[in-house]
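In pairs, describe these two lines:
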Amino acid sequence: MKNSKCCPKCHSENIVRVPDNPARYASGNNIYTTNMTLFGKIPVIRYVCCNCGYVENWVENRHELVEIKKTFG
């Protein structure tokens, strides 16, 4: 949905990007690469189809993908 701007389930173009809220340190849809709450937080951005409710999760920054690979790969 991020790239196509179209829902793969219902083919709607009624897509909304739900950004990370940086003020919410220990909650939200994040990946943590350290045990310290304020550090190593990688936001996962959600794309929601407002027609059928399908959701995709994306890590949008290339350098954050490298950090995830280094930590978990």
